[in-house]
Amino acid sequence: MSHRRILHVVDHALPQRFSGYSIRTRFLTKAQAGLGLEPHVLSTSAGVSSTHEQDGVVQHGLALPRPQLSNLPFTHRRWARAIAACVREHGIEIVHAHSPYATGLVASAGPRRAAVPAGYEVRGLWHETRRVEQDRSNPLEYALWDALEGRCCRRADAVIAISEGLRERLVKHYGVSGPIAVVPNGVDFARFEAAAEDPPRDGPLRLGYIGSLRRLEGLELAIEAVARMDEPVELWIVGEGEERPRLAECAAALGVSDRVHLLGPVPHAEIEAQYARLDVMLYPRKRSPVTEMVTPLKPLEAMALGKPLLASDVGGLRELVADKRCLFRAGDVDALVERIRAFASDAGLRTEVVRAGRERARERDWSRVVQPCLAVYDALL
User: Fold this and answer.
1) How far apart are CA 333 and CA 79, in angstroms?
2) For residues 145-157, b (16+ Cβ closer than 10 Å) or e, as one string?
3) Which of 154, 213, 291, 356 is deepest in the core (most CB within 10 A)?
4) pLDDT per residue as tens digits for the range 32-76
5) pTM
């Protein structure tokens, strides 16, 4: 494959904002640089003009307002001109835009001005997430957001999805007729494998969750499971989000505040130390359109570290989990309690699921995950 200069246009990036979205951008582009490409990243919410390089990836910011539904008619043309100028200045050959729709629309307009192809990567459907997270959603806003996501997919020269569930949604709901490449979430396997050997630890079984505290994660089910158990079990929740106060209230109401620890966020560079304190990782996501389609990053980190995990059987987690004995019925606290007890009492089971998980994580190393991107780029040029 010949040398390629790729401009990734994203909603936000590290260190500007720490999220699964920004982590995916960091490691996807770092893997591309490792394979000989020249990736650039342009964040549409940086708000300042800046350029710096990290891990072989050139990071850009522009002093423009973030494009979003409320200002898109006024910002679209300015962003299109700025992206076209960036393409010409740096000799960009392909623009790789990433959802949501506001980023996709301005990123597709820029390449048309500069006469280069543009792909659109769907990482999730943010309007579906908002519908789950909010008590009330605006149906008109939802319909407009949904229509604009479909428009981004149909206008793109190539479409990428991060899961099979999302690929199916783009075909059935948005009518995308061309091929859709699946570039799933990955993990820096070597980094986490090196930290995988934990010393034996005495005391209660520590169940753990590391990630954003959002309603769709279903963490109140994990708290209820702890309250149902007489065995010595604790729940350690690492992360921040709007659900934190409600989770604390839930633990207090069930009388398990002494066994449920809400630890707050930690930098990604320190994440291995947090995993080392935990015995079994929990991902009790609620069943919803978004959790059926979107795959999270954190279970891959846990598997690479050799941590047994328990996950609800929503589609986005079924795609990730290597051993189906790690799954329980979404929303069923009795099924979760049964699985926790099985993991606590059966060392052989834990060993088997850890072995399968490490193999799955090895398959999802970023250097492998990124390969379908290269095929997409070759097809566009």
Assistant:
1) 48
2) bbebbbbbbeebb
3) 291
4) 999 999 999 999 999 899 999 999 999 999 999 999 988 988 999
5) 0.92
Q: Is the dihedral of CA 165, 167, 173, 174 positive or negative?
A: positive
Tell me if the bond preceding 15 is cis, omega within 30° of 0. Answer: yes
Token pair recorded at residue 154: 């149909």
Answer yes or no: are the C-beta atoms of 45 and 27 closer than 8 Å. no
Please state, in angstroms and as integers, the Cα–Cα distance from residue 212 to each residue in 71, 237, 262, 326, following that order: 28, 10, 12, 21
Residues 231-268: pLDDT tens digits?
999 999 999 999 999 999 999 999 999 999 999 888 87
**Structure tokens given for 282:** 């929990």
Residue type, 223: I
Q: What is d(CA 134, CA 210) in angstroms, rounded to the nearest whole number?
A: 22
What the block records as the tokens of 306 is 């050799």
Take residue 77 and report the two structure tokens written for it: 């043309």
Residue 354 to residue 302: CA distance in whole angstroms: 9
Burial of 193: CB neighbours in 10 Å, binned 0-12, 13-18, 19+ = middle
Count other Cβ atoms within 10 Å, centred on residue 381. 11
Sort strands 280-283 and 205-210 into parallel, antiparallel or unpaired: parallel
Q: How many residues does the chain have?
A: 381
Among the listed residues 169, 182, 176, the one whose alpha carbon sits nearest the alpha carbon of residue 289: 169
Are β-strands 233-238 and 205-210 bridged in parallel, bridged antiparallel, or unpaired? Answer: parallel
CA distances in angstroms from 81 to 7, 44, 109, listed in the order given: 15, 13, 8
- Residue 63 has a CB neighbour count (10 Å cut-off) of 10
Which residues touch 298 (CB under 8 Å, ≥6 apart)?
A: 20, 210, 211, 281, 283
Angle 333-345/219-228 helices, nearest 10 degrees? Answer: 60
Q: What is the dihedral of CA 59, 36, 186, 54, to 10 degrees?
A: -30
Q: Answer whether 103's CB lies under 8 Å from 67's CB.
A: yes
